[in-house]
Amino acid sequence: MNPQPQLGAGLGLRGPHVAGVLAAWPSVGWWEVHSENYFGGGEPVAALERVRERYEVSLHGVGMGLGSHSAPDAQHLQRLKSLVARIEPALVSEHLCWNRGAGRFFNDLLPVPRVDGAVPLIAAHIDGVQEALGRRILIENVSAYVAFEGETCSEAEMLAELVVRTGCGVLLDVNNLYVNTLNLKTDPLAEIARLPIGCVGEIHVAGFEWLDDVAIDTHGASVCDEVWTLLDAALARFGPTPVLLERDTHLPSLDALVGEYRQLEARVAGARERAMTQSPTLTQEVR
C-alpha cells in the first residue's frame, strides 16, 4: 500500500478550467479530478498527463458504488486500474454510497443504510478494489437528506469499522457533515471525534445551496463560515492532512477560483504551523 503523501491545500480541476491550467500553470499545491471523466482516454487523459508532469494529482471516483449489494463493476474497476497506472496519483478515493440495484444504475451518491450486514459487504468490496489497484483507497462520507429506520451506528462509526477491517483510509468531507447537520440534526463534531486519529487521508471543503427548506450539496457556492470552523476542528484532531476545495457547479473563472483557494491555502498552512508545536500524538497510527 502507498504511504501517505505530504500534500497541503489542493483544488478540484474541472473540464472548463483544464486549458487555463495548461496555459497559466497557477500556483496550486495539487489537483483532484473525477476519475470517470478520464476513462475514455484520448485528449482528456493526455491533458491530465501534462498536468501530472507539474503537479500531484488525486483521482476521486463518483461511480464505483461500493455500498451496492453487488460487487463493483469489473469493467469500471479495470478502467480505474488503467488510469491509476497511467497517472500515478497521490491519492485515490471513492464514496461510501450505493448506486446499483435490480439491474439499474442510479447516477447519484445514495447513502448506505447502516444496518446489520452492511459493513461486511462493503468491506469485501473495498478489499477487492484495493487488491485490484495494489494500493490503499480513501472512502468519503456523503450527504444525506433522509434518515433510515433501524440504523445501528453513525456514518463515522461505520467508516471507522471499515478502516479496521480493510486498512482503507477516510476522505472526510466537512461540508457533507454540515449539510447533514442542517437536514438531519446530526452532530458534526461528534462525528469527527468518532474517527480514529490516523485514519483521515484527505479532507474536502465545499459550498452548498438551499432548495426550499433542504440544504443541497451542490458544490456550487463558496465555503461558509461553519464549514471553515469544522475544517479547523478536523485539522486540530487529525494534524496536517491534504485538504481540497471543491467546486462543481456555478464555476467561476479560474482566476476567481484560485483566489478562493488562497483562503484555504492560508488556513492549512496555519494549521500545519500550529501542529508543529503540539503533541506528536496527533500523528499516531490507528490502533
Automatic annotation (TrEMBL):
| UniProt source species | Trinickia violacea
* InterPro entries, A to Z: MbnB/TglH/ChrH, Xyl_isomerase-like_sf
Q: Which stretches are transmembrane?
A: none
What the entry lists under Pfam families is as follows:
MbnB_TglH_ChrH (PF05114)
- What is the recorded name of this protein? DUF692 domain-containing protein
* NCBIfam families cross-referenced by the UniProt entry: PRK05409.1
